[in-house]
Design goal:
The protein has helices at residues 2-5, 26-38, 68-88, and strands spanning 10-12, 19-23, 44-45, 58-62, 97-98. The chain is α+β, with helices and mostly antiparallel strands and 99 residues long. It has a single domain (2-98), classed as Alpha-Beta Complex (Aspartate Aminotransferase, domain 1). Strands 3-4-2-1-5 form a 5-stranded mixed beta sheet. The two termini are 13 Å apart.
Length: 99
């Protein structure tokens, strides 16, 4: 996950378990989820997982039940989509990794 997505967006919690939060600009989240679904990648937004004041917009990526091949494929699709938004927008998605 980090190898592929870490170059495309800021990740949170990648050392903690079976889920990663990929930080994505708020205006892209809904469309990105729909475009990923069209390509066979199912994602959830951070919307229903939010608690507290600080708000991170993005995607919750669960990979506990997927094979390594499926994880790599899904991450590459997601990275391509994130990069397509970054190329079209002056606002960066960031590329730093945060645990």
């Amino acid at each position: 996950v980090v190898e592929v997505l870490g170059r495309a967006c800021r990740l949170h919690g990648d050392t903690a378990g079976l889920h990663v939060l990929a930080e994505i600009p708020e205006e892209h989240v809904t469309d990105l989820i729909a475009r990923a679904r069209e390509r066979g990648v199912l994602l959830d937004s951070t919307e229903r997982h939010h608690h507290g004041r600080e708000r991170l917009y993005g995607l919750v990526i669960g990979y506990g039940s997927a094979s390594l091949t499926e994880v790599k494929r899904g991450c590459q699709i997601l990275a391509d989509l994130v990069n397509s938004y970054a190329a079209a927008s002056p606002r960066s998605t960031g590329s730093a990794r945060e645990a």
